[in-house]
Design brief:
The protein is mainly beta. It has 1 helix and 12 strands.
């Protein structure tokens, strides 16, 4: 089971992703992090989520106070995480209104803003196209 451990409350709260081993009834020591990221602690507030049809991938869009939003892509089978910055120049209140939707057999993660497509994330390569339909 995956858990979010909140480390500090703020407009961009600090958190990390943890794994609880249900069979052993214990919290694993190591956090699930993006190996390419410079820090194990992430900042942001979850705004919206989408899950792949097979349940393997959990995508969460995080809003941030002084930065663009990002998508946290969690591979629940391999215990791997990837953080993908979105090329959106919008303030945090507008970031909280963004919504995620998978399409194309889960091959694309669509980020919508006020009903319009703001960005599209390729779920295989994690390449983001801004303002694409």
């Amino acid at each position: 089971m995956y858990l979010i451990e909140h480390l500090a409350a703020a407009p961009s709260p600090r958190y990390r992703v943890r794994v609880f081993d249900v069979a052993a009834s214990r919290l694993l020591q190591q956090s699930v992090i993006d190996k390419a990221a410079s820090a194990a602690i992430m900042r942001g507030e979850p705004a919206t989520r989408a899950t792949s049809s097979d349940g393997r991938w959990a995508y969460t869009l995080y809003a941030r106070q002084k930065h663009a939003p990002f998508v946290h892509a969690l591979d629940t089978s391999r215990r791997q995480a990837f953080c993908i910055d979105l090329p959106l120049d919008i303030r945090r209140p507008a970031q909280m209104q963004l919504r995620l939707r998978l399409r194309g057999g889960d091959s694309e993660l669509v980020v919508r803003q006020a009903g319009a497509v703001a960005a599209v994330l390729d779920t295989k390569t994690f390449v983001v196209r801004g303002q694409a339909g």
